[in-house]
Amino acid sequence: MQWTTLLQKEVLENWRNFKWVWVPLVMILIACMDPISTYYLPQIIDAVGGLPNGSAIDIPEFLPSDIIMMSLGQFSSLGVLMIVLMSMGAIASERKSGVLELILVKPVTYKNYITAKWMSLMLLVWIAFSVGMLANWYYVNLLFGDLSFVSLLKVTLFYGLWLSLVISFSVFYNALVRTPGLVAFLTILSLLIMSIVTNIFANYLEWSPSNISEHIQQMLVNKSVPAELLGSAGITIILIALLLIGSIITFKSKELAN
């Protein structure tokens, strides 16, 4: 009951801050940017003055899977950045403003507080990302050829795990430090380090969460879910669980110390 009340409070707060409006709109924009710009690239070039005399541009034929991967590339940069900036003050800002003390004066458990924060962000991001991918799927089918709805669901499910890991990192650093800017920096730094380590030890870290996009591409090309993708998904779920548990423990120790 307490957890449900806290979750409802967080969802309502996100609505009052218009996050339920602008986060899905940004996700739709990110998802539709590549399909539309790629298809209309010749017209865009002509509209800005065309190519110099004697020059030519060879635009390859793109498959639906190619466009999907382009869009996931945008989510890996712009989408992740938006999620980090949107969530960096989830707990840190309440600590800074003194709202946290008012909440914890009531018989609110640390576990319920952290998990309600985490779940509210998960709901917001998953719904916004799903809407964005539906828009992407519409334009891909309209402009580049058929992509099955089942393939879309698989892409959304597996890549959504990566975005869930981003949220979990952000919540963990929210529990650890009090400055929203530092939360954003540490979250992005952790994702960057994970990516660098995965690239360096690529032969040993095939199941790294950083490889989810690469494995999704294999899934779209081969039309079957590779074992490496399932492995990466499993490791990602384990990391999410560990970060969530770590967030609760860290938050409790920090607050009790104060």
Describe this structure in words.
The chain has 258 residues and is mainly alpha-helical. The protein is built from eleven helices and no strands. It has helices spanning 2-16, 19-39, 41-47, 64-87, 92-97, 99-105, 110-143, 149-176, 180-200, 212-222, 227-257. Helix 7 (110-143) packs antiparallel against helix 11. The longest helix has 34 residues, at 110-143. The protein is globular. It starts with a helix and ends with a helix. The mean pLDDT is 89.
Q: Quote the average pLDDT.
A: 89
Supply the helix-strand structural class: mainly alpha
**Helicity level:** over 70%
Compute the number of helices: 11
How many strands in all? 0
Report the major sheet: none
Ends distance:
27 Å
Radius of gyration: 21 Å
Low-confidence spans: none
Q: Return the string of H and E elements.
A: HHHHHHHHHHH
Any idea what the shape is?
globular
Strand content: under 5%
